[in-house]
Amino acid sequence: MAQSYGPPPSPTSTPPRTPADLEGAPGPGIRNPGVPFDAQWIRRIHVNRNAVERRATSLQGRRNLEKEWKAAWLLRAISLMDLTTLSGDDTPGTVKRLCAKARRPLRSDIEARLGVGALNIRPAAVCVYHAFVESACETLKGTGISVAAVSTGFPHGLSPMETRRQEIRASVAVGAGEIDAVITRAHVLTGSWEALYNEVRNFRDDCGEAHLKTILATGELGSLVDVVRASRVCMMAGADFIKTSTGKERVNASLPAGLVMAREIRAFRERTGYAVGFKPAGGIRAAKDALVWMILMKEELGDAWLEARLFRFGASSLLADIVRQLEDHTTTR
User: Fold this and answer.
1) Segments forming the whole domain that contains residue 138
2) Domain for residue 315, yes or no?
């Protein structure tokens, strides 16, 4: 029989913590500083694809939450979001409207019916292009909501290296607390692991105090083995998060890729003592799908990975469906 879940761990009673709050924080370790490049460790990888796909299929049915706790899980999902707008027609007005939504994701009547008005439930971050970082920071000042900038030639990562690095530094300079950086897919596809390590190491140095999420674009890497290798190299180089996708690929966040990435995070934690976060992005639009990803985190990595410091959704339309689900919950119970 499938496991049935009660409330999520550590109910959200404070705003999600921003990167500056995480240094030395109790829980699953301090910020990952990276470790020396180890070619032998990269080669020693095997993935049983059939087993991974069976496990991913089983997760699709793991939405079996106790009805009385479903709202608590959905509220937690809001606190794990990087609320995102990455369209070619973005404007300062678009970004300000998104920030307003981040400041108040739930209507006051829904908060009142759920009794959560005092919990200050908000997304963890707003994710935008570099051009809008300064405006987003200004709009979100004092809220505790971080601003993440997509960088390094997003979404393809084909800009000259110095241009990509300058973009990171520029975003950090105007207030970005997190950088979502596209890796060079060609390094993975050609097995140039040390080149990938050096690239991510440079990105990490350019981030300074800002946290680095490395975007693997898993749908374009060819195999689950290479997804694991790319994850391992990025963590070795000091990535704070590994992220599935830009959201612009034909195949974005998939459960098989997410599963092997989560297991690689666990292996890295066991080997080095450092906890790295995980961010699935692209195609996660329905509340029921968000619950599947949260259950994956709980079962594969534990309750600590149901906090914003170690797990995020890259989401643009997910919030709207969660709000609809919460509204239905409050009017039918």
Assistant:
1) 45-332
2) yes
Number of domains in the chain: 1
Give CA separation, 237 vs 40, 68, 218, in Å.
15, 43, 18
What does the DSSP 8-state code read for residue 18?
Answer: P
User: CA–CA separation, 308 vs 49, rounded Å?
Assistant: 29
Q: Which residues contact 223 (CB under 8 A, 6 or more apart)?
A: 47
pLDDT in tens, 227-265: 999 999 999 999 999 999 999 998 899 999 999 999 999
C-alpha span between 33 and 177 (Å, rounded): 17
Task: State the catalytic residues.
Answer: 180, 243, 279
Would you put residue 228 in left (φ > 0), alpha (ψ -120 to 50) or beta? alpha
**What pLDDT is attached to residue 30?**
81
Q: ∠16-129-181 over CA atoms, to 5°?
A: 75
pTM of the model: 0.91
Q: Tell me the CATH number at 227.
A: 3.20.20.70
Q: How far apart are CA 291 and CA 98, in angstroms?
A: 23
